[in-house]
């Protein structure tokens, strides 16, 4: 069963190149995301490269791995989380005042049974967790905006 697309966006008063530099430095992801505590690209920033990650929610920690599925400099960065098949992306669009940054979580084919079980058992159920993810996306985008504008 397909999961809903989760999305948030923000307008940033900074050039696309500045926003791209922040978003494409995956080692900075813990500065933006309230859930990601560590993200280490393996082999540089390129399509097909892998990342090793550590996430946290309260006292619960869990590792994940990702593969970069799309990389178009200053336009789009996307990666698939291997453990649950979701694809997270950042898209940048130039605006008159700077940049519109859009963060999306796609799960067209749903998430894995293991992921659904763990979210249901330890994270308050899928609807609550997805609401929390959107709140986290908005926090991440606000943090990126603050960094880009300062």
UniProtKB/TrEMBL annotation:
InterPro entries documented for this protein: Polyketide_cyclase/dehydratase, START-like_dom_sf
CDD domains hit by this protein: SRPBCC
Protein name from the UniProt record: Polyketide cyclase / dehydrase and lipid transport
